Amino acid sequence: MRRPGLVLAVLWLVVLAVAAFAPAVLAPGDPLDGVPAEKLTGPSGAHWFGTDQLGRDLFTRVVHGTGLTLRGAVVAVALALVLGSLLGLVAGTAGRVVDDVLMRGVDVLLAIPSLLLSLSVVAALGFGTVNVAIAVGLASVASIARVMRSEVLRVRGSAYVEAAYSYGARPAGVLLRHVLPNASGPVVALAALELGGAVLAISALSFLGFGEPPPAPEWGALVAGGRDYLRTAWWLTTLPGLTIALSVLSANTLSRALDARFGAHR
């Protein structure tokens, strides 16, 4: 096996997809039901991740919380991908004045820390996973826009694009058939990287209390809920935190593999 890390990352992402869309397959229990007599029980064969202060099975809550966090991350990346690609495409093809105006706006967004920008958007939109996803997505638009613009400028100077123009192809046709497909590879790799960043950002905002209200088992909320029990019940924060870390690392590993693949074809 040449790349075991990539294989493990893909397998982990597949498990996350199953947990997000069919959580009962991995954890058939109710994440809101608890047995008070079993509260703060450590990890065991009966409770893989232990139980929380209300006797709820932590593994079940982590699995059922995957959908909230992961679907929010996918929405954030999709929003950033659409808006960022559109901005980069327009900036790379419209001309100097439009390019300068759009890129100066992108520079302003890049100058603002992404978490601070997300907090500002959430404060304007309100709490909840959807609003958090929109905030995280808007904070990621600038990086995707810059990559798309640079790729569009690179592809526009290629010989096959000039040949298409010489044969009388329309600019819109050249843009859709030649420029956009050949410029999208690095953007896709960046989107995979942004997926890991979105999981981390959504978990951070959920940790701060901007996500779904309790008892929704968002990953960040689970970590926050175990802060008061660090000395007596380490698993309440450690195991959800490890789940977040593995998800981010898996997305980053996939992103590096995609970047190496598309970079080799440039």
Q: Can you give a write-up of this model?
A:
It is a single chain. 74% of the residues lie in helices and 0% in strands. The two termini are 26 Å apart. It is an all-alpha fold. α1 packs across α11 (235-264) and α7 (141-156) packs antiparallel against α9 (171-207). It has 11 helices and no strands. It has a single domain (47-264), classed as MetI-like (MetI-like fold, Orthogonal Bundle). The chain crosses the membrane at residues 73-94, 106-126, 187-210, 232-251. It is found in: Cell membrane.
Produce the secondary structure layout:
Layout: H1 4-21, H2 23-26, H3 58-94, H4 96-111, H5 114-125, H6 129-139, H7 141-156, H8 159-166, H9 171-207, H10 219-225, H11 235-264
Helix pairs in contact: 1-3, 1-11, 3-4, 3-6, 3-7, 3-9, 4-7, 5-6, 6-9, 7-9, 8-9, 9-10, 9-11, 10-11
Pfam families: BPD_transp_1
Domain ABC transmembrane type-1: 66-255
Keywords: Cell membrane, Membrane, Transmembrane, Transmembrane helix, Transport
Summarize the entry for a quick read.
The chain has 266 residues and is mainly α.
Which key terms come to mind for this protein?
266 residues, elongated, MetI-like fold, cell membrane, mainly alpha, Peptide ABC transporter permease
- Mind describing the biggest β-sheet? none
The Rg value, from CA coordinates, equals 22 Å
Categorize the overall geometry.
elongated
Contiguous low-pLDDT stretches (5 residues minimum) are none
**CA(first)-CA(last) distance:** 26 Å
**Secondary-structure element pattern, one letter each:** HHHHHHHHHHH
